[in-house]
Amino acid sequence: MGKEKLYKIGELAKLADVSSRTIDYYTKLSLIEPEKRSDTNYRLYSDETLTRLKRIESMKNEKYTLEEIKANLQQWSKVSPDDTVRDKLTSIQLHLEQLMKEAKELGPIIQQLKPNQMKKLSRILTQPTAACIEALIVLLGKNPFS
User: What's the pLDDT tens digit per position in 49-66?
Assistant: First the structure.
C-alpha cells in the first residue's frame, strides 16, 4: 500500500486555488486540520483536506457564512466518515437549496397560470419530483418499500 500524498500549505493553496493565508485562517477556525507535521514542523495536509477545502469554497460561493459551513461540515461528519459521501451529500444539499430558491421565484408566475396550464405543469413535474423524493428517502435509509 503506497503512502498518501501530503501537501505543504503552499502546495495545497495552489491546488485549491486559495491563498496560504486562507488555509491558515481555516485551520485556525478548525474548518480544516493538518494530517500531521513534518520533521521540520511544517503542517502537512492530505487529499481529504483538499476535497474539504474545495467543498468549503463551493459553499462560500453559495453565500454560506464560515459559521454555517462549519456547522454543516460537522453535521455531515456525523452522518458518514467517508469524505466522498459527505461531498455528495453537500452537493445534494446545495442543489436542493438552489431548487427551493428557484421555486420561490417562480411562485408568482405559477399563480398566474390558467387551469389547463397548471395541469400540464403538474403532469410534467409530479413524476420526477416523486422520483427525487423517493431517491432521497432510500439514500437516508428509510425505504418505505422494503
Answer: 998 899 899 889 888 899
DSSP letter at 45 equals B
State the Cα–Cα distance between residues 146 and 143, nearest whole angstrom.
Answer: 6
Cell of 94: 446545495
List the beta bridge partners of residue 43.
Answer: 37
Query: DSSP letter string over 91-132?
Result: HHHHHHHHHHHHHHHHHHHHHT--HHHHHHHHHHHHHHHHHH
DSSP three-state, residue 59: helix
Largest CA distance in the chain: 72
Please give the radius of gyration of the chain, using alpha carbons only, rounded to the nearest integer: 21
User: How far apart, in whole angstroms, are the C-alpha atoms of residue 22 and residue 26?
Assistant: 6
**Per-residue pLDDT for 1 more than 50?**
no
The answer to whether residues 66 and 29 touch, using CB atoms and an 8 Å cutoff, is yes
C-alpha cell at 5: 500524498
